[in-house]
Amino acid sequence: TRLHKEIVDFTEYLWPRQVEHTVRQHVIHRVTKALQFRFPDVDIRCFGSYASGLFLPSSDLDLVLLSRNYMATGYPSYGLSANSLHRVAHTLKAAGIIKPGSLVVIAKARVPIIKFTDYETDLHVDISFENTSGVRAIDTMKRWKAEYPAMIFLTYLLKQYLSMRNLSEVYEGGLGGFAVICLVVGMLKLVPEFASGAVDPRANLGIALMEFLDLYGNKMNTTEVGLDPAKGKFVRKPPPPSRNEKGFNTYKAHLLHVIDPNDPDNDLTRSSHNIVTIQQGFSKAFRDLQMEMERVSKLSFQERKGVSLLKLLVGGDYREMTARRNRLQLACQKIVPKNFFAPNPPPRPPPNPARKLPPLKLPPPQSPPPEPHHPQSNSTPPPTQSSSPTVPPSAKPT
Predict the structure, then answer these.
(1) Which of 130, 204, 245, 391 is deepest in the core (most CB within 10 A)?
(2) What are the C-alpha distances in Å from 11 to residues 57, 284, 318, 328, 384?
(3) Is the residue at 169 inside a domain?
(4) Which residue intervals make up region (Disordered) (predicted)?
(5) What is the Cα–Cα distance from 14 to 156, expressed in whole angstroms?
(6) Domain range enclosing 263
């Protein structure tokens, strides 16, 4: 279908280039070298979207500082005080890694973090301390990528959708990348036609997207149920705590509850307080796509040329993304040594299945899936929609 093909093409456009991979590897190398020179007992590990191979061109680089003492005993040596965070930040400043004016030290958060922009590449970097949860999640994400190929495409699309609306940063109340992955996998397990194998979501990405938007935008009652993505089922939300550690009742019944597949006691979305806005956006996207598909189905073949469905979700000005990639290319040529070794980037999305499967019935009706097709690397940028009131004029997230 048209929507399926657009999702494939859009994923190809966002898929990381070799230069984006090499530059990130070089940043990790420089940060590790600077910190291990000053603090010989630490190791720097990468986690998050880059480690899983599901990062956008604008994605932050997530690193975690782990001390040998913490790995051996579970007791942290760093990040316990604001002073230790500032010592790490000062070390990076002295090494010329932090761009002036970009440093933010968040010492009082549940997970202390240092945020800054790399001086040489303009990449945004987050460093957390003595926390292995993100590292443990890498294997889960890689396993899901192999088990649910459709997850790759939907994750890229949904992350860009949220990023364009400033709803992708957890510390700002948005949905983090791992939470998005959990929602997608949960949907693929919950929809009977997908779970039974009657319909292959990888061959019906348009249908899978509509199911996702409908499930989390219209059907899921977040005040009563949560999601367990590991088991692929909805669960009753745990009873609210009477008081927090400071004696205040901060419980909000409407918040989304997603169980961490690597730690059942951890709620991945407890800080996503903008979930109502996100759900309303999913619901509106579902309705808008339904109406647009119905409208386009009545057009002649000639009239359908140049019509885009995805512009309703991710239409915008992508010139900044192209410029950013060009800047990274120049930076790579200038700062990365020619003998610097960067492992190969993650392979491109798997090709379409070779067999046709009956499409899931979902209004408006869609035609059978397309013939096998592997997206090419020279796909054109996504269409723009400068007049859309729901999409910001620029696709560059903050």
Answers:
(1) 204
(2) 12, 22, 14, 20, 16
(3) yes
(4) 338-398
(5) 7
(6) 2-14+139-318
**Least confident stretch, 2-11, 184-193, 316-325, 362-371:** 362-371
- For 328, the token pair is 């990274």
Considering the domain boundaries, does residue 305 fall inside one? yes
Q: How many domains does the chain have?
A: 1
Mean pLDDT (whole number) for 377-389: 43
Q: Is 234 helix (H, G, I), strand (E, B) or coil?
A: strand
Tokens of 91: 């070390």
Q: Which of 52, 205, 219, 221 is nearest to 137 (CA)?
A: 52
**What are 8-63's pLDDT values in tens digits?**
999 999 999 988 999 999 999 999 999 999 999 999 999 999 999 999 988 999 99
Q: Tens digits of per-residue pLDDT, 319-333?
A: 989 988 888 888 888
Which residues are CB-contacts of 250 (< 8 A; sequence separation ≥ 6)? Answer: 244
Burial 204-221 (b: 16+ CB within 10 A, else e): bbbbbbbbbbbbbbeebe
Higher pLDDT, 296 or 380: 296
Q: Judge contact between 11 and 156, C-beta under 8 A.
A: yes
The sign one gets for the Cα dihedral 239, 275, 123, 11 is positive
Residue whose pair of structure tokens reads 């980037």 in the numeric block:
345
377 falls within a domain: no
The CA distance from 321 to 287, in Å, is: 28
Both tokens of 12, joined, read 């190809």
